[in-house]
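We now fix the convention by which a protein and its fold are recorded. The integers have meaning only within a learned vocabulary of local backbone shapes. A record is reproduced here so that you can trace the correspondence yourselves:
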Amino acid sequence: MERRRAERRIVSTEEPLARARLRTGGQLQLLDASSWGALVETTARLLPGRHLDVHVVSADGRVLVRARVVRASVSRLSADSVEYRAALAFDRALDVRAGGYVVPAALPGGDIGEGTKYPNGGAAGDIEFSDRLSA
């Protein structure tokens, strides 16, 4: 029985969506995502029930979304670090499609001509310094 609110997809490491940031500064690596949540890996200690503010680059651009940690576990343990894997539930739906990221549009008007060139020689009124030093 499927209980998810929305279909999830695996997030490619080359996508802007793959990297998110907590408002407190911690980095998140998104493994998979849906419009209502994400599975993330991080070195930040995330406890179930905790509420977070997450900066995400979605198809709508960079957004700040409130999320709740649904479940969390230790995914990797080494002598100098601990990595956690956590499931986050977003408070609102996000557009996490693989394509369709916001890209600035081309400037209207077509061809833009060259700008004004800098003058080659010294202009009248330039300041001239003498080699003599004053005491």
Remarks:
- The radius of gyration is 26 Å.
- The chain has a mean pLDDT of 80.
